[in-house]
Design a protein that fits this description.
- It is elongated and about 80 Å long.
- The longest helix has 18 residues, at about 185-200.
- Strand 7 (about 170-175), helix 5 and strand 8 (about 205-210) form a beta-alpha-beta unit.
- The chain is an alpha+beta fold.
- Helices cover about 20% and strands about 35% of the residues.
- The two termini are about 50 Å apart.
- The protein contains eight helices and 21 strands.
- The strands form four sheets. A six-stranded mixed β-sheet has the order 6-7-8-3-9-10, with helices on both faces.
- It folds into two domains: about 15-95 and about 170-245, Rossmann fold; about 255-385, Nucleic acid-binding proteins (OB fold (Dihydrolipoamide Acetyltransferase, E2P), Beta Barrel).
- It has helices at about 60-70, 110-120, 125-140, 155-165, 185-200, 210-220, 235-240, 245-250, and strands spanning about 15-30, 30-45, 50-55, 75-80, 85, 95-100, 170-175, 205-210, 220-225, 230-235, 255-265, 270-275, 275-280, 290-295, 300-305, 315, 320-330, 335-340, 345-355, 370-375, 380-385.
Length: about 375
């Protein structure tokens, strides 16, 4: 890969570039009134890569289109650098959109596609040559200036679309699921490239996707949305390890959900009844009596069951020890996933990462084997259930 010219990386994410306050969007459809966004409040920081993540229909694309100026909010304010921009048309906002379809001009060369926005802005020819040359080097497109889009690979077309947006030096760069048309391997490669380029240029970026892995790999912060609302905003590790709601826990990665009830709250934590045992947990606060416990599969340890006749789930030294048997095994390459049926009928997913040097097939439990599932109290997180 061609070495990119040195560009300072902006690392400060303290000041807000974009502020979204009380934004609501209502569409009138044949079926009636549809509230796509329900009072969204969000701050997007200078230089950060923010991903809006959620399932189809959650409102993420509507929010992106409002930021871009393609849609007007029914209520609320969008501000850029402290100034409201609700009435500023899309072509007057210092933002650029990278579309899912690339939207390249098929009759123009790579150079002409990238230079198009600068020519519309009547930028001097020498400056166009210089700026296009710089971004082509950064995007690893040098030498492809005279090719047409049909002569490029999917990844190269994506980089041309990104270069065309970056060359006009936008204040904010918006991405509308730009990698969804690529195959899995190229998609993984391009997400690393996009992140590298964004960090190198320091452009504030807002990225929309429904792909959890993509969001976790690329983002400084993730906004998880559901049914027109923001469920949680946080760094990838916060979203994964400390989900605020059951929706977040279930949507990001895999999660076991265990019903529980509170026995007592104190300065020492939250005493709960779970799986027929009593356990002391961290109290996240803000929960009423209705909550569930979330447990990640990788936090479940499986060991051979010494006594097949042992049917008791016990709690000892802040560990739950639950006997059961392996019901299903899925080999995933770097890890193996087990479905364990506990003796009380509860189904528990467990994940074991392994390597050729450490594990052999004989080291792993087989289907029908008796196992002891062990969980530490710190791995159990109390969250709000779905309404």
């Amino acid at each position: 890969m061609t070495a990119a010219p040195s560009v300072p990386i902006r690392t400060s994410v303290e000041s807000s570039v974009v502020e979204v306050s009380g934004v609501q969007k209502v569409f009138d459809t044949k079926r009636g009134r549809h509230e796509a966004l329900k009072s969204i409040d969000l701050q997007i920081h200078d230089g950060e890569f923010l991903t809006i993540l959620g399932p189809s229909g959650c409102g993420k694309t509507t929010l992106l289109r409002i930021l871009a100026g393609f849609e007007q909010p029914t209520a609320g304010v969008v501000a850029l650098d402290g100034e409201p921009i609700n009435d500023v048309p899309a072509n007057k906002r210092p933002m650029a959109m990278v579309f899912q379809s690339y939207a390249l001009f098929p009759h123009l060369t790579v150079f002409e596609n990238i230079a198009y926005g600068l020519r519309i802005a009547k930028t001097p020819r020498d400056e166009i040559e210089e700026r296009v040359g710089v971004v082509m080097s950064i995007m690893d497109l040098a030498g492809l200036e005279q090719r047409l889009p049909t002569q490029l690979s999917g990844g190269q077309q994506q980089r041309v679309a990104l270069a065309r947006s970056v060359v006009i030096r936008p204040r904010v760069l918006l991405f509308d699921e730009p990698l969804s048309n690529l195959d899995a391997r190229l998609r993984e490669q391009m997400r690393s490239e996009l992140r590298r380029i964004q960090q190198q240029l320091g452009i504030t970026s807002v990225y929309v996707t429904h792909d959890q892995t993509e969001a976790m790999a690329m983002s400084d912060r993730i906004v998880v949305m559901s049914e027109g609302r923001i469920e949680q905003v946080g760094a990838p590790h916060e979203i994964y390890r400390r989900p605020a709601t059951l929706f977040v826990a279930d949507f990001i990665g895999k999660a076991n959900v265990l019903r529980a009830s509170a026995l007592k709250r104190s300065s020492e934590g939250l005493s709960v009844s779970v799986l027929g045992t009593h356990l002391q947990l961290h109290d996240p606060g803000g929960l009423d009596e209705d909550f569930v416990l979330v447990l990640r599969p990788e936090d479940v340890t499986l060991t051979p069951l010494d006594s097949p006749n042992d049917r008791n789930i016990t709690a000892k030294d802040r560990h739950i020890q639950a006997p059961g048997w392996v019901r299903r095994i899925e080999y995933l390459g770097a890890a193996t996933q087990f479905t364990v049926e506990l003796n009380d009928g509860t189904l528990l997913e467990a994940m074991r990462s392994h390597s050729l040097a450490r594990d052999s097939v004989g080291d792993l439990p087989g289907e029908g084997d008796g196992v002891l599932a062990m969980v530490h109290a710190d791995a159990l997180l109390a969250v709000k259930p779905r309404p």
